[in-house]
Design brief:
The structure holds two protein chains of two kinds.
Chain A (H helix, E strand, L loop, with lengths): L1 H9 L2 H9 L16 H18 L3 E3 L10 E5 L7 H11 L9 E4 L1 H4 L4 H7 L2 E3 L2 H9 L3 E4 L4 H4 L15 H8 L4 E7 L1 H4 L2 E4 L1 H7 L5 E3 L9 E4 L12 H28 L1
Parallel strand pairs in A: 1-9, 2-5, 2-6, 3-4, 3-5
Antiparallel strand pairs in A: 6-9, 7-8
Helix pairs in contact in A: 2-3, 3-4
Chain B lengths: L8 E5 L4 H10 L4 E6 L12 E3 L5 H10 L3 E4 L10 H21 L4 E5 L23 H4 L4 H16 L5 E6 L1 E3 L6 H7 L2 E5 L5 E2 L1 E3 H14 L3 E5 L5 E2 H7 L3 E5 L6 H9 L21 H7 L7 H12 L1
Parallel strand pairs in B: 1-2, 1-4, 2-3, 4-5, 5-6, 6-11, 7-10, 8-13
Antiparallel strand pairs in B: 9-12
């Protein structure tokens, strides 16, 4: 009985139900093609819930903009030397009172190759940032989180906080090809929670990493704000790379504006 | 007794394998069968002529002259766990080319070739649904799979160049089940099975009997082309081992050469060196084209398959 109570405290039944009710094409052993596993999702949700509610005291605005079902790309700014923003964004979508979704996230390719880390990410729904994977997931009507800045965002350092780095264009191609709406999201707070003051380049090279952060020993419990924008719809044909980039810049400008709004809300709170 | 003299005549290669035995059992009432194997002479019922023959020798052509084959089911690909690299190349590439040339020369109407999903290569950037048009990266990963990729390339050339051969190429996922002696079959049978620490790639398995049915249906319906064969159900390697009742033997996966070093030190082949990547990264294939084209659905679930291996251990 105490064990059940503890279990319910760690993962409240309504949260568990949201994971159970998510329409995922799971196989006979509860795994999907990319390695997502329902039991692992429970554990991850329980862990991130603590960080979300108590450690970072996340506040989320505009979650009513996320479609209740069907394919959608969640495009956000990337910050902090670890993908904590991805975890918080994912939990925010899961706990969305308007339309809970169990999202997928496209992750850096280097994670897939790291023992244990790659497996862990796969089991909780993260997938290697590979175009075909994203298309296949959208075809299965998933909500997919993409950080188009990639490591340029997480490795930019604290001095460049909230300066959006170059966006990869791939997500726009995918959105148009698969007729998928884009929900832009501005994230504020992760820059301060996981500040990177410098890059130990020698160590990074030695371990084959894009950067090796010089930072505080643990994440700083700053308040994090997630600001979801209204859906953006794009259509083709795309005539050139410049044409594609112009569309990407529309999303980038929107995210910049959402960050500014979030900073305002963050500050006045 | 059925009079088989009027039935179409089929050559089935690789007759010694468990899969070929299943295919033979399914086809023997509908066709006049001739079977051969380059490894050994296979004992067959009286009405099925059986030969031990090297595809590169004249005796092989004699079979074409004698039996006037209507179709060939080429299951005689030497697996990556058998023979030397050179031996496999001679049998799988040179031998198969001879088989295809003879098929042309003697106007065989239909040829089915069994390949493997290994040709796609295991790579961290593989999409979860590898379709038939995905590049065959295996040769770039290990020289030990060059023969499999070349067999594929060769078959594909013949498929487009000589449409009258009606070539069907099948790329199945891991075939497992009673009597299967391939790499995965051997691993699932072990009491203590090696795993690379920190890696558990998604894998697909098809039961031997389902695979035999797939070959038969592909041959009978005859839609030339290239097809993946796999159920739409995956499981991580280490979970599969647990369900098969295997205890895990963890092998450190870093640095990269550690598994090979440990194998040398212990004098035991822990995991096949040329397939190490398949125990790190997924190579899961999309079998939907085959399922739709041939209206095929496997009968055995993953649980059924693993129950067999668990039962063996109890």
């Amino acid at each position: 009985m105490p064990f059940k109570k503890l279990k319910n405290w760690l993962l409240p039944p309504d949260l568990k139900a949201k994971i159970d009710n998510a329409p995922k094409p799971l196989g006979s052993l509860d795994y999907d093609r990319w390695g997502y596993h329902r039991n692992s999702a429970y554990k991850a949700a329980a862990g991130v819930r603590f960080l979300y509610d108590h450690y970072f005291k996340v506040q989320a605005f505009g979650r009513e903009n996320v479609p209740t079902q069907g394919r959608v790309l969640i495009i956000a700014n990337h910050s902090g030397y670890l993908p904590m923003d991805g975890a918080l964004l994912g939990y925010s979508l899961l706990s969305n009172p308007y339309a809970p979704r169990v999202p997928r996230a496209m992750i850096e390719r280097l994670f897939t190759n790291i023992p244990y880390v790659g497996n862990f990410f796969s089991q909780i729904g993260a997938v290697t940032g590979q175009t075909q994977n994203c298309i296949d997931m959208l075809k299965q009507e998933e909500a997919v989180i993409v950080f188009p800045e990639g490591v340029r965002g997480t490795g930019k350092g604290f001095v460049k906080r909230y300066q959006l780095q170059r966006f990869g264009n791939g997500f726009m191609d995918i959105a148009i090809d698969t007729n998928t709406p884009i929900i832009p999201v501005g994230i504020v707070g992760c820059e301060e929670a996981l500040p990177m003051f410098g890059n130990a380049e020698g160590l990074a090279k030695k371990f084959g990493l894009p950067y090796f952060p010089i930072t505080v020993p643990f994440p700083i419990p700053t308040r994090v704000t997630l600001n979801f924008g209204e859906p953006l719809y794009f259509s083709g044909p795309i005539h050139s790379e410049d044409d594609l980039e112009a569309k990407v810049n529309v999303v980038k400008a929107k995210i910049r504006q959402l960050i500014a709004d979030a900073q305002h809300k963050h500050g006045v709170k | 007794m059925i009079d088989t003299s009027t039935l179409p005549c089929l050559l089935i290669t690789g007759a010694a394998g468990a899969l070929a035995q299943q295919v033979i059992a399914r086809l023997r009432d509908k066709y006049r069968l001739v079977v051969c194997d380059s490894r050994r002479e296979v004992s067959m019922p009286e009405d099925i002529p059986s030969y031990r023959v090297d595809f590169n020798k004249r005796r092989f052509e004699d079979l074409f002259k004698e039996y006037h084959f209507d179709g060939i089911i080429h299951l005689g690909r030497i697996g990556s766990n058998e023979n030397s690299r050179e031996g496999r190349y001679n049998a799988n590439v040179i031998g198969s080319q001879r088989l295809l040339d003879l098929a042309r020369k003697y106007k065989v109407k239909q040829t089915l070739i069994l390949s493997t999903y290994f040709v796609y290569g295991a790579h961290p950037l593989n999409p979860a649904y590898l379709t038939e048009s995905a590049p065959l990266k295996a040769a770039g990963i290990t020289m030990d799979l060059v023969d499999s990729v070349e067999l594929e390339n060769l078959s594909t050339i013949y498929l487009w160049k000589y449409p009258e051969l009606n070539i069907t190429i099948l790329r199945p996922c891991n075939i497992v089940g009673p009597g299967v002696n391939n790499t995965l079959g051997q691993l699932l049978m072990q009491e203590r099975t090696p795993v690379l620490m920190g890696y558990s790639p998604m894998m697909q398995f098809i039961h031997l009997e389902d695979m035999a049915s797939a070959i038969v249906v592909a041959f009978e319906q005859n839609h030339a082309g290239i097809y993946n064969i796999a159920p739409d159900d995956c499981v991580p390697y280490q979970v599969a081992l647990s369900l098969c009742g295997c205890k895990k033997l963890p092998i450190p996966s870093v640095p990269e050469n550690m598994p090979l070093l440990l194998a040398k030190l212990t004098g035991r082949e822990l995991l096949p060196p040329h397939l190490l990547d398949y125990f790190k990264h997924s190579a899961t294939i999309d079998g939907s084209l085959f399922s739709q084209t041939f209206d095929f659905k496997p009968r055995y679930s993953l649980k059924d398959i693993f129950a067999h291996y668990k039962h063996l251990k109890s």
